[in-house]
Amino acid sequence: xxxxxxxxxxxxxxxxxxxxxxxxxxxxxxxxxxxxxxxxxxxxxxxxxxxxxxxxxxxxxxxxxxxxxxxxxxxxxxxxxxxxxxxxxxxxxxxxxxxxxxxxxxxxxxxxxxxxxxxxxxxxxxxxxxxxxxxxxxxxxxxxxxxxxxxxxxxxxxxxxxxxxxxxxxxxxxxxxxxxxxxxxxxxxxxxxxxxxxxxxxxxxxxxxxxxxxxxxxxxxxxxxxxxxxxxxxxxxxxxxxxxxxxxxxxxxxxxxxxxxxxxxxxxxxxxxxxxxxxxxxxxxxxxxxxxxxxxxxxxxxxxxxxxxxxxxxxxxxxxx
Amino acid sequence: xxxxxxxxxxxxxxxxxxxxxxxxxxxxxxxxxxxxxxxxxxxxxxxxxxxxxxxxxxxxxxxxxxxxxxxxxxxxxxxxxxxxxxxxxxxxxxxxxxxxxxxxxxxxxxxxxxxxxxxxxxxxxxxxxxxxxxxxxxxxxxxxxxxxxxxxxxxxxxxxxxxxxxxxxxxxxxxxxxxxxxxxxxxxxxxxxxxxxxxxxxxxxxxxxxxxxxxxxxxxxxxxxxxxxxxxxxxxxxxxxxxxxxxxxxxxxxxxxxxxxxxxxxxxxxxxxxxxxxxxxxxxxxxxxxxxxxxxxxxxxxxxxxxxxxxxxxxxxxxxx
Lengths: 321, 321
Known about the structure:
2 copies of one chain form a homodimer. Chain A is α/β, with parallel strands linked by helices. Chain A has 12 helices and 13 strands. In chain A, the strands form 3 sheets. The first copy, chain A, has a 5-stranded mixed beta sheet with strand order 3-2-1-4-8. In chain A, strands 11-10-9-12-13 form a 5-stranded mixed beta sheet, with helices on both faces. In chain A, strand 6 (83-87) and strand 7 (92-96) form a beta hairpin. In chain A, helix 3 (114-125) packs across helix 12. The longest helix of chain A has 25 residues, at 234-258.
């Protein structure tokens, strides 16, 4: 039955991924497009619609027959109305994404924060399957987070709970993109690491990193960091380990506060350097979580990779039916 | 009808308070006893039973006719079984409090963490009435915390979620009673303040505090701190304001993480110096919470004072019926 099919879309700063899934959440169609946010909101909207149509065509489906389309977007956004409040990555401000897509596609649309949906899919289908209280942390350009509490995504009063990247690690620490100081994201994201790596490079301590990223450390990718560490850039390893340790300290606070049974660590940096991130986070947890709560939690690597957000977006529709 | 009456007990490190409440949560009987934890667990048990009986007698009730008895205790404890896992204040270890009291009293007993119950009563009957997502923070000898999420106490995987006093404020900060470093409690509790105040006293910067607490700063009470500040001990005001600011920074993290609609600030220190604690916490929140989430939250002083935990304990029974 066609109404069993759902499309999940991951709307990222650089790419749009659309997946068609069946009732068992097997992927039966997919399409990928560049976001090209600089071309403006109308163009991005058109590319989302085109990605949905292309993914459906690949699965031999009429988009009008979909049960709905879920979209994971950078936030903050209002999941109740599907309005993107403010997205620096996309350059959007109070954009009614759900309404616009519903008009264009003629099927129900739901919108949620990308990190929320990554956490939801890991809890329903991935690393934290069957766990009731799950914290998702996704470390890449920024640090995204999501909370599944009592088996359900937790939204709080604003709809935007779960901003794990903005836990305060040091009240007088480095300036964060959010305007405050010392947030986890300002200390442990890839952007923060790039800043420290640039200093190391100026000192001549990161020759392999400079080679890997073509001389411009501000454009460093997670894979470049992994490569430089592998090749022997000791300073880069120290910087990355310190960032991973801070993520572990933040997990300590989260464990003391929420007593989750699983923390899922994902995102580009964790995928590229899983061993370092898991080892440092698990070690830091020993020193910053209370033993009675720490013994009930596991830190697990994310399993769903690049499909996590789109699968979570599909779940959003599937579970609303 | 007698089965409408419930007793709530606040089992503290220094005193036991028992309240009899009617269906409308009006207090119709009360009794107070010293805990005398040093006399051992059996003696404390007997004094809890005696307090319940005395409070019932005051209300003209037969304790056997109660709907049940709720108890708020220092943790960590397992609210599902009513076993006190480990209470440094009481010196208890794996003590089956619920089972023992049920045998002695012959009515249903429920046990929960004292800070959880303080948060619950403030959300049901006090400062945060009608709010869905409430964080309770109680600053005294230690710093206790509780979470009401989606209108219900949140327990997490271990049953012991809500340890707000053990959010990590500085990974290399002062040693905490929990064995880790830099917890909020190690920086902003009355015990932490007493340590700093002792140094100020040695320097001759706290003459009024020394007078107020009879020369031994380690035994300082919240009222002594308030008195010393009032009398002009500038160093003590600086120390207390800094502690209050750290509580505000922790609230910033909590807002970014949970997006509550209300944070209730209570406990002995806040009662004694409400203006300082509220002003510093609200100011710190401006610098450490994301604006979109901060605009949805209020920081409110607790309203139920010394009755908060016992009322929460009564709610525990009333809502289970």
